Amino acid sequence: MAVYTEVTAEELYVLLERYEIGGLRAFKGIAEGVENSNFFLGTDRGQFILTLYEKRVSPKDLPFFLGLMEHLAQNGVNCPTPVHDSEGRVLQTLAERPAAIITFLPGYALRKPQPAHCHALGAMLAALHQSGLTFSLKRENALSVAGWTKLFAKIDGMADKLSPGMTANIAQQLDKLSREWPADLPSGVIHADLFPDNVFFLGDKVSGVIDFYFACNDVLAYDLAVCLNAWCFEQDHSFNVTKARALFHGYNSVRKLEREEVLALPLLARGSALRFLLTRLYDWFNTPDTAFVKRKDPMEYWRKLTFHQDVHSPGAYGL
Amino acid sequence: MAVYTEVTAEELYVLLERYEIGGLRAFKGIAEGVENSNFFLGTDRGQFILTLYEKRVSPKDLPFFLGLMEHLAQNGVNCPTPVHDSEGRVLQTLAERPAAIITFLPGYALRKPQPAHCHALGAMLAALHQSGLTFSLKRENALSVAGWTKLFAKIDGMADKLSPGMTANIAQQLDKLSREWPADLPSGVIHADLFPDNVFFLGDKVSGVIDFYFACNDVLAYDLAVCLNAWCFEQDHSFNVTKARALFHGYNSVRKLEREEVLALPLLARGSALRFLLTRLYDWFNTPDTAFVKRKDPMEYWRKLTFHQDVHSPGAYGL
Prior knowledge:
Two copies of one chain form a homodimer. Helix content of chain A is 43%, strand content 16%. Chain A contains ten helices and ten strands. The relative contact order of chain A is 0.13. Chain A is an alpha+beta fold. A five-stranded antiparallel β-sheet of chain A has the order 1-2-3-5-4, covered by helices on one side. Chain A has a three-stranded antiparallel β-sheet with strand order 6-8-9, covered by helices on one side. A two-stranded antiparallel sheet of chain A has the order 7-10.
């Protein structure tokens, strides 16, 4: 959500010479995306986004991410498409970082999505899952159960500084999730980070999905569990069952959830809450005080995890 | 250089109803401007900037700043113009802050301006000074000698933590500048913060000047001294006399500097270096470590101040 790397006009001129998108007209850093530097790029021929991939994105994953965006866009999902240079390449180097020019999507992220938006989100997510089935590249989810266990080991008891007893509770949850995590649910490409920041709307319609830099192959219903946590709780931490119901109805209107997927949702929701709790805890204790970024509150996801621990059937989610 | 305040789509819809600039199409936080929150705003009818004024800008100064931008734009200076709502107002309230929609300027800020850019900058600055002469509102420069003295008192010896002896040197400079500061040079509206971040170019031509939130009435040549410090030193801290000469030639090509203004430049350059040294020192010691903003290095301006202390005639600047 910031600009980490400065780009000079000279560097841009050289980059734009490779493309057939016209001369430079405007260039501004924008507060968008997770941990990459993003710029609004205006040329004679239109508007684009320039992304510089910072250290948390592994260069070896970029063909997967960029290829996926192109595949999904070609299959009707409104997501940014990498622009090809005159030699057909999408991946460049700028300011010593991997970089890509992608298309600019209309719309804007919502701070307070309503049930109608959750319905549209669900329908878009199902379409994304269906379109992803024909994408040929694969990427493992580095932030699934095995990844959580590694991350938890790195935090090493520090969670109790935020809330006494949190470490023991996480250990218990992690143990339970490791044993029960579903292996045989329908799988495919998932977005894995579908927070309201990453979905643009025009009115009630989804106009775009961005930030595919956690996308991977995993259980499809896990993506819904991420959305349940990110879209269906209010700022006062209360769960909004109307939004959850709208999310699931939207999803089902495009791809009908199987009975096993529905039954697994309480477990998947706990897993998703734990995933974001752990990464936020890690960042909380490992982001230097002088850093340029706002740390996200781990306690929000601690509360969500606690909420799902009391859920024993998908009925609690309005299903 | 950040987004401090979140704006919801709902708040934007309500705001845009007051205007005749079409429906919302895009909205993104941008990394631009000093200590305000700025957003890229796309509508059916074009591109705009939405600015929310954060606590460092006094609401009572906003009619001066917004009126000045409108006056200058009407008089041929490429600067953002406040957009009037259907009742003729430019100042709004959004997210509990004063806010304004201003026009979007083409162009981009340069990280490494060349002599040709310094020439264009000088010519633009002279045109800005001339156009400003017919602007009727006045605003005192809160960051001139009296302001520096107050700021220095607040820093209270802490500068020695950065470089032993700095406090005594600043005290001596401040004393000398207070006694010698020119009172009778040509005065008018100055920008007072004309760093490369605040000037947009298309090729070698200035396409826009932004961020008028330090603008005030003061000695015109002081603005040139600010530019001398901000544009004519290299990243290795060396002074580039070619750039300085280009800056002055550009200025003289539109408004000829008087002999007294030229002679005062070494003093004005010391004053300008001291002004930015003091505000950077203040921010260095008063910005919490957890803050969202990058602190600017005071030592850069300490070196510039030291440089100008050895300058005894404007010849050193290529004049």
